[in-house]
Amino acid sequence: MTADGLLERVPYRDQGARTRHEYLPTDKALALYPVLAALMEWGERHVPGVVPVRLHDRRSGEPLVAALVAAGTPSCPPALVEVRPVQCWPKSNSRNLFDYHSGPLRNAIHEKTGT
Prior knowledge:
- With 115 residues, the chain is α+β, with helices and mostly antiparallel strands.
- The chain has one domain.
- The protein has three helices and six strands, in the order ββααββββα.
- It has helices spanning 27-30, 33-46, 103-113, and strands at residues 7-12, 20-25, 53-57, 63-64, 81-85, 95-96.
- A hairpin with a 7-residue loop joins strand 1 (7-12) and strand 2.
- The protein starts with 6 loop residues before the first strand and ends with a helix.
């Protein structure tokens, strides 16, 4: 994926630890986000046994859908997407799409998306 320009290999080091590398999504990868959201929706409808999740705007709490819209229509940047399981979990168990990633990844996403 790095050779295809989807991920950038970036070194980081926690205090007292050895240097490691993190793979950060490039603008090219982030441009695929609407495609992945559409595939998630398709899988929920057409693949038996898929555990559905819903994407929500972290600002408004409104559900998000993959759709064709008029040019210039504002979209929700990936850093503001919240993933919620459909099972009856309380909202406190919902996660930001990037909560599972380390600080450098989260910071890179915020820098690239302006959020």
